[in-house]
Write a structure and sequence with these properties.
Distance between the termini: 10 Å
Number of helices: 11
Number of strands: 8
Helix content: 40-55%
Shape: globular
Strand content: 5-15%
Largest sheet: 8 strands, mixed
Structural class: alpha/beta
Order of helices and strands: EHEHHHHHEEHEEHEHHEH
Length: 279
């Protein structure tokens, strides 16, 4: 597949499986491979920011090294801060203190970087970007895109309540096409052929009681995700997209804390990213 100015980059989420994406993106940066349009969701949005700021290994450090040091996933964070991932550490201390994010380079980057969020009022996906240099809004969008339902607080951006973009659009390839990018590179965090075998269930009224459309969206989440996986594989077979995905059986969970498993998945992503850049 030829990479040109009209080629888009699509980044799936997947929680800690996103270390695969960070490996691929680090390889892209090593080979100076950059795209003019990127659309990312959840963990893909977090990894994509370090790609936008041209900071190799920053995402790896935050996802692996800092996890081992700070143990930022756990029920204690859910109890004390309303989120199973420590939000104070991830969205304040990381970018502003411990592994400083290069906001200036990010905002100078001419590429359009969109992050997928789910509007809790409408139950629909939205695609937000920050082009005017508002640092806090950029972080808030990323946090909203990554806020898993049930185990994260709703995040407000521009006065609107948002949760994880993966509720509606886990693999936003159709968004990339609608933005004029007929050819896209899609980085997935699941093996080909994976389908979620869980059953969709109607969400009780007492959960997200003020957001009935969000409850409807959550009630169809599995079916929507599986349909997107089928679309991606069909488009891949037709030669309309190029997919980079894990080739080894997936051993990393959404909230994985085993550093050795995370390191192995990162290295697989880096190796496949290099293969893509050099073939």
């Amino acid at each position: 597949m030829q990479i040109n100015r009209n080629t888009g980059l699509v980044l799936e989420g997947g929680g800690m499986r996103g270390v695969f994406t960070s490996g691929v993106l680090d390889a892209f940066m090593k080979h100076d491979l950059y795209f003019r349009y990127i659309v990312a969701v959840s963990a893909g949005a977090c990894n994509g920011l370090s790609y936008m700021s041209r900071q190799p290994r920053r995402a790896r450090i935050s996802n692996i090294d800092m996890l081992a040091k700070y143990d930022y996933i756990g029920l204690r964070h859910l109890v004390t801060q309303g989120c199973i991932f420590d939000p104070k550490l991830l969205y304040d201390r990381f970018p502003n203190e411990l592994i400083p994010f290069d906001y200036d380079t990010c905002f100078r980057n001419p590429a359009l970087f969109e992050m997928v969020v789910t509007n809790c009022h409408t139950g629909r996906s939205e695609y937000l970007s920050e082009r005017d240099g508002d640092r806090q809004r950029l972080i808030d969008i990323c946090r909203a895109s990554s806020s898993l339902p049930y185990v994260s607080k709703i995040v407000e951006v521009d006065g609107q309540p948002y949760l994880d973009g993966g509720i509606i659009d886990s693999v936003p390839v159709e968004r990339a096409i609608s933005m004029g990018h007929e050819h896209n590179v899609v980085i997935m965090t699941r093996n080909r052929g994976f389908r979620n075998t869980s059953r969709d269930l109607k969400i009780p009224r007492y959960i997200y009681r003020n957001y009935p459309r969000l409850r409807v969206a959550l009630s169809h989440r599995v079916a929507v995700y599986n349909a997107q996986l089928e679309l991606v594989e069909r488009m891949e077979d037709e030669g309309r997209i190029t997919v980079i995905r894990p080739q080894k059986p997936m051993e990393v969970g959404r909230i994985e804390k085993d550093v050795k498993k995370l390191e192995a998945l990162y290295e697989e992503g880096f190796r496949l990213g290099e293969q893509f850049c050099t073939k």
